[in-house]
């Protein structure tokens, strides 16, 4: 939900405007996708850790951003948000601007234009973007390993179990992982197929 709320407006700006600011924003979105996730985790730990000014500021409000549930959400957000933005931008760019222009002549503008025209036309692509982001967030290992080792997410738990007990011990946990990770993408994919027929 956070990824859709934060990522969709940014994806719309990137799809509709071509300025120096949007080029810079696009580069900033791509950086986390190009970096090794362990390196990104180290940067986030340096930025949000207890000794960092940002980490200290959050800690004053009772929000600890290392080895906590909030840190786990932060790791998933940084891992999956760029994937969502890039895919959502492509979906929103496919919406014909002519249809939006016609809607404006009929008095539909601003948020109403987005929710009544743009969003319905891009919904299948946005659903695909959301499912990609979901799988990316669920499978994140490197960032979680650095800033949210506790509580252990499924990928980190798999790694720990392989180290401690061997490959055979992780198959039940793999089944849990697939049960948690796959339903949303499968449901969105089936819905998309049903809408295209």
What does this structure look like?
This protein is mainly alpha-helical and 197 residues long. The chain has a single domain (2-151), classed as MetI-like (MetI-like fold, Orthogonal Bundle). It is 79% helix and 0% strand. The protein is built from eleven helices and no strands. It has helices spanning 2-16, 20-34, 37-48, 53-60, 69-93, 97-105, 110-138, 142-147, 154-165, 171-181, 183-196. Helix 1 (2-16) packs parallel to helix 5 and helix 2 crosses helix 5. It is globular, with a radius of gyration of 20 Å. The two termini are 28 Å apart. The mean pLDDT is 90.
Give the SSE map.
Blueprint: H1 2-16, H2 20-34, H3 37-48, H4 53-60, H5 69-93, H6 97-105, H7 110-138, H8 142-147, H9 154-165, H10 171-181, H11 183-196
Helix pairs in contact: 1-5, 2-5, 5-7, 7-11
CATH architecture: Orthogonal Bundle
Low-confidence stretches: none
> What's the multimeric state?
single chain
Mean pLDDT: 90
Determine the N-to-C terminus distance: 28 Å
Please write the CATH class name. Mainly Alpha
What fraction of the residues are assigned to beta strands by DSSP? under 5%
Shape verdict: globular
Radius of gyration: 20 Å
What is the chain-wise order of helices and strands?
HHHHHHHHHHH
CATH topology: MetI-like fold
């Amino acid at each position: 939900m956070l990824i859709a709320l934060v990522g969709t407006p940014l994806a719309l700006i990137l799809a509709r405007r071509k300025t120096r600011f949007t080029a810079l924003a696009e580069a900033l979105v791509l950086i986390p996708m190009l970096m090794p996730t362990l390196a990104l985790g180290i940067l986030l730990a340096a930025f949000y850790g207890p000794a960092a000014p940002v980490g200290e500021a959050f800690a004053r409000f009772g929000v600890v951003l290392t080895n906590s549930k909030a840190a786990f959400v932060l790791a998933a957000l940084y891992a999956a948000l760029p994937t969502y933005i890039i895919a959502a931008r492509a979906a929103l760019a496919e919406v014909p601007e002519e249809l939006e222009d016609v809607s404006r002549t009929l008095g539909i503008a601003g948020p109403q234009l987005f929710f009544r025209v743009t969003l319905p036309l891009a919904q299948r692509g946005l659903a695909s973007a959301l499912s990609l982001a979901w799988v990316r967030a669920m499978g994140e290992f490197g960032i979680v390993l650095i800033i949210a080792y506790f509580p252990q997410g499924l990928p980190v738990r798999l790694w720990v179990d392989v180290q401690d007990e061997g490959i055979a011990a992780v198959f039940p946990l793999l089944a849990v992982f697939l049960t948690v990770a796959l339903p949303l993408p499968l449901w969105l994919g089936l819905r998309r197929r049903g809408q295209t027929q």
